[in-house]
Write a structure and sequence with these properties.
CATH class: Alpha Beta
Radius of gyration: 12 Å
Order of helices and strands: HEHEEHEE
Oligomer: single chain
CATH topology: Alpha-Beta Plaits
Number of domains: 1
Length: about 80
């Protein structure tokens, strides 16, 4: 049951600059609420960012705050944010 509740607070983040890693992603989204987990997906062969990641918030307020933000810009890139499945 806990994993279901946690998945309801997880967001997909697309459009990440290749310079953004897990720490930068966590730091950016922590302004919206407590971040339990944040990670950027990297290509296994090249080690380069694939341009997307996921953020899990510790509570619904942070999750909703991030989703309700009109526009997310990180290092000059406009991010695409949506609830993760």
């Amino acid at each position: 049951m806990a994993s279901v509740a946690r998945s309801l607070r997880k967001v997909f983040v697309g459009g990440l600059p290749w310079t953004v890693g897990t720490n930068e992603l966590r730091q950016y989204f922590s302004e919206f609420g407590h971040v339990v987990n944040a990670f950027v997906i990297f290509d296994r062969n090249t080690g380069l960012s694939r341009g997307y990641g996921f953020v899990t918030f510790g509570n619904p307020a942070g999750f909703n705050s991030a989703l309700n933000q009109q526009k997310h810009i990180l290092e000059g890139n406009v991010l695409q944010i949506q609830p993760a499945n």
